Amino acid sequence: MKKTLKQHLDPKSGPKRILSLDGGGIRGALTLGYLKKIETILREKEKDPNLLLCDYFDLIGGTSTGSIIAASLAIGLEVDEIKDKYMVLGGKIFGKKRDWWKPWETYKYLKANYSYQALEDSLKDLFKDYTLGGSELKTGLCIVAKRADTNSVWPLINHPDGKFFDSPIGKNKNIPIWQAVRASSAAPTYFAPQMIDVGDGQTAAFVDGGVSMANNPALTLLMVATLKGFPFHWPMGEDKIEIVSVGTGYSVFSKQVGEIDDATMLTWAANVPDMLMQDASWQNRVVLQWLSNSPTAESLDGEMETLNEDYIGEKPLIKYLRYNFPLTKKTLNDLNLKGKTFNDKEVASIIEMSNAENRYILYDIGEAASKEVKPEHF
């Protein structure tokens, strides 16, 4: 039986399920490979071949590319539909950098590598005139963006009781979904910031939510769902709240001491963003594995290990599942994708978040890696 939006949001209407989707540029195609497996398992489990992820999950949230997929799921699209649209959208968004050598393009190029127009047009085509307060949303939605002019993370939600949803201090219900997603996806150096009228006479400047601790938004979504300041007020407990968190793949640092010692300022500038994003995601996993007894728990380091049975309090406070894939030459070649062998250059290309030509192979990687998603997890 499908739930109404009100039933999805109601804290008294049974156990709650959250789907959290990471940022990662074009590597969101890898996320879709995992989501296809999750959708297939849930359709078999619920004995409903037409079940949508918005029927099963009560809150779907994402950052950056994850927000595009999250919003698409929340309006009732199945994974295959999103995949088709995402492949077209990704090709347009990252298809061509600005021509820096053209005088009329030079100033814009100094602000961002890619024109926002292709991104904006594609999102408008996908989400039409739907708003955060619109009836098109079938379940709870949280789009994580970063308000650059106040340096604050903004979880843009569709809960009608939210403080900024429809009040004298905010009218977030009127924000077009395409604009909220565009804000969450405005990665500095890739795209220009997104300006949004947030009500109360304010225009806010937003950049990619990944420029925060919430590129992996799972912990942020848990806080949105349970803290008193937000409107959901869902109760904690392993049998009451479940978080399924899906990544976009990740690089594995492996440097020689000499490389670090010889690194220049430019080398550090190129590496620091990825280092901080990975640290933020790692911290998310530490806290969520600490709160749970997860069947997908990873060994976090040589001291903490998996944190299983090391949870806060007397028993687990959440059910937590995390799916992600290390993008290394060994792990990629172990997938044996149609007999393909990856070299170092190809691995580096796949890790880069704006290489649109990799979107199809990224989906294949996610689909192959999704063997770790088991029916007994749900």
Short description:
The protein is built from 14 helices and eight strands. It is α/β, with parallel strands linked by helices and 378 residues long.
Any overview of this molecule?
This protein is of the alpha/beta class. Helix content is 39%, strand content 13%. The chain is built from 14 helices and eight strands. The protein has helices spanning 5-9, 28-45, 53-56, 65-74, 79-93, 103-111, 116-127, 177-184, 218-226, 257-261, 265-291, 329-334, 344-351, 359-369, and strands at 16-21, 59-63, 140-147, 152-157, 194-199, 202-208, 241-246, 319-323. Strands 1, 2, 3, 4, 5, 6, 7 and 8 form an eight-stranded mixed β-sheet that branches. Strand 5 and strand 6 (202-208) form a beta hairpin. Helix 2 (28-45) crosses helix 14 (359-369) and helix 5 packs antiparallel against helix 7. The chain is globular, with a radius of gyration of 20 Å. The two termini are 17 Å apart.
